[in-house]
Design a protein that fits this description.
87 residues; mainly alpha
């Protein structure tokens, strides 16, 4: 196993906590964009862990980065719509 710093392990732990929090929030209220945003934040942090690990090809990192960016965009649009509608 490669020697990765505590930064990499920290990103893994934070991503796991984000996934747990996001999925539990989505279980309580499935139409909650905050929970979905937390899940995408966990995916972003897991992506940082994979980059630090340096065992994943660059094209997969790039693909996952675009998925995370699109997910954040959808969540932002949902939050703007909620703000405008007053919910």
């Amino acid at each position: 196993m490669k020697n990765i710093s505590s930064y990499g392990y920290g990103m893994f732990v934070l991503s796991a906590l984000c996934f747990i929090g996001g999925f539990s929030s989505m279980a309580i209220n499935p139409y909650n964009p905050y929970g979905l945003g937390i899940i995408f934040m966990g995916l972003f942090l897991f992506l940082q862990y994979l980059k630090k690990l340096k065992r994943v090809p660059a094209y997969i990192i790039r693909l996952l980065s675009w998925i995370v960016a699109a997910g954040f965009f959808v969540v932002d649009i949902a939050l703007v719509v909620m703000y405008i509608s007053g919910r």
